[in-house]
């Protein structure tokens, strides 16, 4: 599968695994802004990232002098898709760091994710969990809607694991 890259103003979104910065992802997970996850040991974080389709959001420098001492632009956002890349996708860990919010980057990120999904001819379902107050309207832009429990005899089942930061 070809890796996607999108540009807008001084930002880039890329699915290139080489650009993902595990330390930046872990720092976000450890922040108060990311309420659903916790930081983890590097070996587990790297395994999680390697087994997912990841979209990194990067702030590009306005000049080459801003890259002094860096080989990659800073990662300021992220989205992770757990998937077989054919029929099913579970979207999780979507964020843009607070200092970069209010610029439409989160909406652009989900547009890029949705563009990737649109290229999968056999995609059956995309799922995610979201805060109903903010998340439902935000993800409606992707065509996401609530799965009505019990309709047509289907229900979403889940089990919370030890690594969850969500209250029971």
UniProtKB/TrEMBL annotation:
Residues 11-163 form the N-acetyltransferase domain. Pfam families: Acetyltransf_7 (PF13508). SUPFAM superfamilies: Acyl-CoA N-acyltransferases (Nat). Coiled coil: none annotated. GO terms for molecular function: acyltransferase activity, transferring groups other than amino-acyl groups. PROSITE patterns: GNAT. InterPro entries: Acetyltransferase_Butenolide (IPR053144), Acyl_CoA_acyltransferase (IPR016181), GNAT_dom (IPR000182). This is N-acetyltransferase domain-containing protein.
């Amino acid at each position: 599968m070809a890796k996607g890259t999108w540009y807008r103003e001084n930002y880039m979104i890329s699915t290139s695994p080489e650009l993902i910065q595990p330390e930046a992802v872990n720092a976000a997970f450890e922040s108060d802004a990311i309420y659903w996850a916790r930081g983890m040991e590097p070996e587990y974080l790297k395994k999680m990232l390697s087994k997912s389709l990841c979209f990194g959001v990067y702030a590009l420098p306005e000049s080459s002098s801003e890259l002094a001492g860096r080989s990659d632009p800073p990662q300021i956002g992220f989205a992770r898709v757990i998937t077989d890349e054919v029929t099913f996708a579970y979207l999780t860990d979507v964020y843009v760091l607070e200092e970069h919010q209010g610029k439409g980057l989160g909406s652009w990120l989900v547009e890029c994710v949705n563009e990737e999904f649109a290229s999968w001819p056999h995609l059956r379902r995309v799922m995610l969990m979201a805060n109903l107050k903010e998340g439902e309207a935000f993800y409606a832009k992707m065509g996401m809607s609530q799965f009505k429990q019990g309709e047509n005899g289907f229900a979403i089942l889940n089990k919370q694991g030890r690594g969850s930061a969500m209250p029971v």
